[in-house]
Amino acid sequence: MAELLRNPEKMSKVKDELSSIIAENKQVEESDISRLSYLNAVIKETFRCHPAVPFLIPHKAETDITINGYIIPKNAQILVNVWAIGRDSRIWSNPDSFEPERFLDGKIDYKGHDFQLITFGSGRRICPGMLLAHLMVHLMVATLIHNFNWKLEPGIEPEQLDMNEMYGISLHKAVPLKAFPVKH
Ligand code: HEM
């Protein structure tokens, strides 16, 4: 919601897509999600820029292993910096810019096969809540946007929105978003 309020033209694109697929007096349903391709790209882009679990959950090496010339000794604790992968300019063009369009071709997903976007981890310990989270995040954001127009606090312009983040096991906004719904 913060990225969309900061990028009003992208908020309009999400709204237009919702109105073209769901009648105004109808609620968004689970079966609509796969048809909301722009919203899907917005959520992937949000996961790239603001991964909810920025270092995954700590893993441990089962044996000594060498990867890319680096020796990882048995029992070493391994933190995977998903946040840095999402901001790496060798992987992403304009990594600090919020551009859902980069995902519109549908080639990259967060289901654990595309290592540039491992929001939910990958492999044996991949997040078992991924499918529930996928449905809930799409349904919540779509419902909020389909039913209301959203405004920032009076006097705050989109480009002034504080997007600083606070690290912990999970990543959250340092300054909570204040947004006001306006029924249309
Ligand atoms: C946007 C929402 C969510 C994100 C981004 C997320 C992300 C993650 C990540 C990155 C991991 C660690 C994976 C790894 O280290 O390889 C994880 C583990 C886990 N997640 Fe989620 N998660 C989300 C929602 C949920 C939900 C809704 C549930 C349960 C209903 C859930 C349950 C778990 C559990 C139980 C683990 C530990 C799995 C294990 O260690 O074997 N998560 N999650």
Automatic annotation (TrEMBL):
Names of required cofactors: heme
Main location, first listed in the record: membrane
UniProt KW keywords: Heme, Iron, Membrane, Metal-binding, Monooxygenase, Oxidoreductase, Transmembrane, Transmembrane helix
Stored PROSITE patterns: CYTOCHROME_P450
Alphabetical list of InterPro entries matching this protein: Cyt_P450 (IPR001128), Cyt_P450_CS (IPR017972), Cyt_P450_E_grp-I (IPR002401), Cyt_P450_sf (IPR036396)
Entry keyword annotation includes Cytoplasm: no
Domain of life: Eukaryota
UniProt membrane topology term: Single-pass membrane protein
Family per record: Belongs to the cytochrome P450 family.
Protein name, as recorded: Cytochrome P450 76AD1-like protein
